């Protein structure tokens, strides 16, 4: 290998890459045309290969260092731009894409809510008709605390807020992920989980109502429940979407239907995760605090729910104008 001839032949591309990188570093990648960006990527690959050859053939430390610096700069510009695009894409999704998906799939979320509500009404009806029904759904220790001592159980969170908040968030995420995954079982597990959670909430609500503790109980629930309960319904809707693709593909092939509805379900999961993390933090640090007046908790919960509804109604101005 004639080193001088090789350097002479390759030096033009090294200089061309250096020129493009200087422009990109000074003015940003947007200052380059599409053709120049493609050229930059091609030159970067060629120079990376030259660096490997220079190392293999031990072509002088100076050349190796220059090529190393050039490839490092190229890598930084190309992949930093890619990461910026990914970040921009994530921001755009949460600003505009997620609200659109929530609107497109609201029917499935509504069905999930109806199943949950049915469970709550069934629990309320049977709990009033038969006192023994309560013990089938609610732990006996909790029943005794409410009925015999006239106390709620939320005070146990106080003093352990960080641990409680993380535990609550993890538990809620686990419940919701199982609901979503239950769609692959023809939606049977999703429906069961929604109905059972409705039974549980309905039974507990009846228990505290029968013992004159409804107002402080719902004051505890409102702040975090304004996000946690909608997240459960969204998770149920995502599971039903997967079941729809599996059972009723319609005009699509079943494989294509699963891909289409599964993508919507995945997007809904991306939305409910931050909702549950925020709800867990609120349930750990705000909901059980006795120094916060109950009316304030009701206002906080109502305000968060209104903000959630307003967020759902957000529309991409670019899409709306077309």
TrEMBL record:
What's the source species' lineage? Bacteria, Bacillati, Cyanobacteriota, Cyanophyceae, Gomontiellales
Per the record's keyword annotation, is Membrane included, yes or no? yes
Report which superkingdom the organism of origin falls in.
Bacteria
One Pfam family, short name: SpoIIM
Q: What is this protein called?
A: Stage II sporulation protein M
* Keywords from the UniProt entry: Membrane, Transmembrane, Transmembrane helix
Q: Which InterPro entries does the annotation name?
A: SpoIIM-like
Entry annotated with the keyword Membrane: yes
- Record's PANTHER family? SLR1478 PROTEIN (PTHR35337)
List membrane-spanning regions: 106-127, 152-173, 185-209, 229-248, 260-282, 294-313
